[in-house]
Amino acid sequence: MIYQRSSALFAEAKKVIPGGVNSPVRAFNAVGGDPIFVKEAKGAYLYDEDGNRLIDYIASWGPMILGHAFEPVVKAVIEKAKKGTSFGMPTEIETQLAELAVSMVPNIDKIRFVNSGTEACMSAVRLARGFTGKDKIIKFAGCYHGHSDSFLIQAGSGAVTFGAPNSPGVTQGTAKDTLLAEYNDLASIQTLVKANKGAIAAIIIEPVAGNMGCIIPTDEFIQGLRTLCTQEDILLIFDEVMTGFRLGKGGAQEVLGIDADILTFGKVIGGGLPVGAFAARSEIMGHLAPEGPVYQAGTLSGNPLAMSAGLAMLSELNSKPEIFNSLAQKTEYLHQGFEKVLNAKGIPFQINRFGSMLSVHFTEEPVIDFASSAKGNNETFKKYFHGMLDKGIYLPPSAFESYFLNDALSYADLDETISALEGLSL
Ligand SMILES: *Cc1c(COP(=O)(O)O)cnc(C)c1O
């Protein structure tokens, strides 16, 4: 495939945008080479600036669950735009999307819309601190909750320890209030909770992780986490920015059968426009301004275009819940196809899958947390990524990212993807 124009556009972009991109993972740093510039997309296909057609497995990192340029969403946005794009005043459609979201998701009474998943998680933690009157939070190594200061903390080689910031610009003062635990390791949380008794406001987790590959929580881990939070008066925050409205109508809470105290959303809830949200029972949401003292605001929050896209998307998913099954079946089909091909090639690999999320890791060990995910062979991953790209298959350009299947993918597309893998020498 030829990527001449993409490379030229990237060179231009780098002159005026740091690294040529507005979000780092787009830059292909993990796999090398120049990123592909998209011109347009429809259904399961991306069309790039060189005229290549790519089968898309990232779906804008999740939102395009029904495929690109999904007709009802496009129509809703166009109609809304004609009537004005922002007012800074309340509109009826905000309530309509809120009512629909609250009806689909278990265990929430109220929802506040923001503009990104980052904002949602940042605000959820502030609310948890305001509600409990406690300062510290626990997060898990390898979980991503957006780029706000409190979350840019990583583990030192798997050690359960006080967080050290992993980005310049995050102060030690902020970092000391974020404690790190290991995913799927209940003992690592128990240790932290014991050592910080009465000081922990919340534990935030991706209930099915997607930012270190796709990692599935064990029942024992996720149930133990819930029990511990209840016992210790710690709020459990499920970051469902990825899993919400993707794993099922009610997200991870519904499929795992666990109630969280605060939920955060993003990605699918905006139908491809910038929307995030956080939600909880009234008792907790009542602490939020203007009802309560915890401040949170946004000039463009609840923006009518964004709300119209979200409403069209959630209405479709709500009225056709069989979509979630169809997506899971397609993902299973891809999983089985890949497994067969990779087994025949005789190279070590792990495939993790949950619903319509999947990831491929070139390692012999089961991938259950950040440390085991990081053991994947990145040289093989690079060959795999670029080999697939050359055959017109667009996968996440990092082994730490989950694939997000979209329902516009046909079985013919999946077969084409599996055949592409068959043709690779890894
Ligand atoms: C994408 C993501 C975020 C951040 O959302 P943005 O809209 O990119 O700010 C937060 N949490 C999880 C689990 C995510 O996948």
From TrEMBL:
Coiled coil: none annotated. Gene3D superfamilies: Aspartate Aminotransferase, domain 1, Type I PLP-dependent aspartate aminotransferase-like (Major domain). GO terms for biological process: protoporphyrinogen IX biosynthetic process. The modification N6-(pyridoxal phosphate)lysine is found at residue 267. Keywords: Cytoplasm, Isomerase, Porphyrin biosynthesis, Pyridoxal phosphate. It is found in: Cytoplasm. Pathway: Porphyrin-containing compound metabolism; protoporphyrin-IX biosynthesis; 5-aminolevulinate from L-glutamyl-tRNA(Glu): step 2/2. Pfam families: Aminotran_3 (PF00202). Its cofactor is pyridoxal 5'-phosphate. InterPro entries: 4pyrrol_synth_GluAld_NH2Trfase, Aminotrans_3, Aminotrans_3_PPA_site, PyrdxlP-dep_Trfase, PyrdxlP-dep_Trfase_major, PyrdxlP-dep_Trfase_small. GO terms for molecular function: glutamate-1-semialdehyde 2,1-aminomutase activity; pyridoxal phosphate binding; transaminase activity. The keyword Cell cycle does not apply. Signal peptide: none annotated. One of its GO terms (cellular component) is cytoplasm. It is an enzyme of class 5 (isomerase). It catalyses: (S)-4-amino-5-oxopentanoate = 5-aminolevulinate. Its EC number is 5.4.3.8. Belongs to the class-III pyridoxal-phosphate-dependent aminotransferase family. HemL subfamily. Homodimer. HAMAP family: HemL_aminotrans_3. NCBIfam families: hemL (TIGR00713), PRK00062.1 (NF000818). This is Glutamate-1-semialdehyde 2,1-aminomutase. It comes from Aggregatimonas sangjinii.
